[in-house]
Amino acid sequence: MPMKQFLSAHDVDSIDDLIDLARRHKRKPRNLEDLGYGKTIINLFFNPSLRTRISTEKAGLNLGFDVITYDASGGWNIEFETGAVMNLDTAEHVREAAGVLSQYCDILCVRSFPSLTDKEADYADRVMKSFVQYATVPVVSLESATRHPLQSLADCLTISEHSHRPRPKVVLTWAPHPRRLPQAVANSFAEWMVEWDKVDLTICNPEGFDLAPEFTAGAQVVHHQAEAFRGADFIYAKNWSSYDDYGATASLPDWIIDESKMALTNNAYFMHCLPVRRNVVVTDGVIESPRSLVLQQANNRTWAAQAVLGRMQTK
Ligand code: AN0
Ligand code: CP
Questions:
Q1: In which band, very low, low, confident or very high, does the pLDDT at 315 lie, cut at 50, 70 and 90?
Q2: Which terminus of the chain is more solvent-facing, meaning fewer CB atoms within 10 Å of its CB: N or C?
Q3: Ramachandran bin of 211, using left for φ above 0, alpha for ψ from -120 to 50, beta for the remaining angles
Q4: What pLDDT, in 10s, does the model give residues 68-94?
Q5: pLDDT classification of 219: cutoffs 50, 70, 90
Q6: 274 in ligand 2 pocket by Cβ < 6 Å?
Q7: Which of 213, 9, 216, 7 is nearest to 108 (CA)?
């Protein structure tokens, strides 16, 4: 079924179908090279990106779309409040911004990070939802304040390619980081793993770092890595800042993923969405080991994006 938006796992009829489609694109990247003929994708970035930007551009080009990327990560002060008197810092209202961009494209892709200060606005996903509301073309999330669905779809594909038994044990573990980061990748990973229903998901994080309950339903949540790692087939590491004490972080270097923790697992694969801080999040030895899938995950971003872009309902 064509999709009118791609913001979360809930916009997808069948994750397995989408994974199959991504696999077909991976085998024959140019098989549908006329699909986007005469159509344009705009990628709008309010925050920087390496993987998402290039893989989405490549996916669009493989499908024959024209692709225009606008990097607004240097700053573009948009107003989101209805009825705002715009005599301060905001230069343009999202109604015009979304309306204007819709004149120039057939699919609008948007990346926007959370403030990590205003929990209510972040969890209302105000930036992404405003673009959805005021754009007249389908909107694809390139990571919003709360979710990163293209990353999660690529992660489903990667796990499906390396899964050698029914319902493997997948562990999403918090890991240290010097800066405060969004919960989006972790939220989305949990949401997709539960919705996909092909793995058993354990989420492991320090006390005070539980994800929002809407994302953890259906997963086991534990607070000790030694307990979580036992018997794991996949270790997915990610830092996130606190949801409860919103945006707060903690210095817990012992949560690093190292060889001794990986030795507790069922010879697990190591996964991370990247970018990663070496020897803070994960040791060189683990990320460089033959069980590390980080480059396969990055590769699969293209095929995931191609599956999604090809499914969007354009005029
Ligand atoms: C971002 C995050 O944690 O959401 C992007 C991840 C894809 N990471 C960093 O900014 C390091
Ligand atoms: N994994 C990921 O989304 O990376 P970028 O921030 O480089 O796009």
A1: confident
A2: C
A3: beta
A4: 999 999 989 999 999 999 999 999 999
A5: very high
A6: yes
A7: 7
Could you tell me the distance, in angstroms and rounded to a whole number, from the CA of residue 16 to the centre of ligand 1?
26
What is the predicted pLDDT for the residue at 312? 98
Question: Hey, which of 146, 238, 273 would you mutate to test ligand 1's pocket, going by the most ligand atoms within 8 Å of its Cβ?
Answer: 273
Please tell me whether residue 314 adopts helix, strand or coil conformation.
Answer: coil
Tell me how far apart the alpha carbons of residues 161 and 260 are, in angstroms, rounded to a whole number.
26
Cβ-based burial of 290 (10 A; exposed 0-12, middle 13-18, buried ≥19): exposed
Cis link prior to 166 (omega < 30° from 0)?
no
* Main-chain dihedrals φ then ψ at residue 312, nearest 5 degrees: -70, 145
Return the pLDDT at 101.
Answer: 98
Element of type H or E holding 111: strand 107-111
Q: Under 8 Å CB-to-CB from 239, ≥6 apart: which residues?
A: 174, 175, 176, 177, 181, 281
The pLDDT of 237-253, averaged and rounded, is 98
- Of 277, 57, 223, 240, nearest to 148 by C-alpha is 240
Backbone angles phi, psi at 24, to 5 degrees: -65, -40
Distance CA 287, CA 271 (A): 8
Centre of ligand 2 to C-alpha 49, Å, is 5
What's the token pair of residue 10?
């809930």
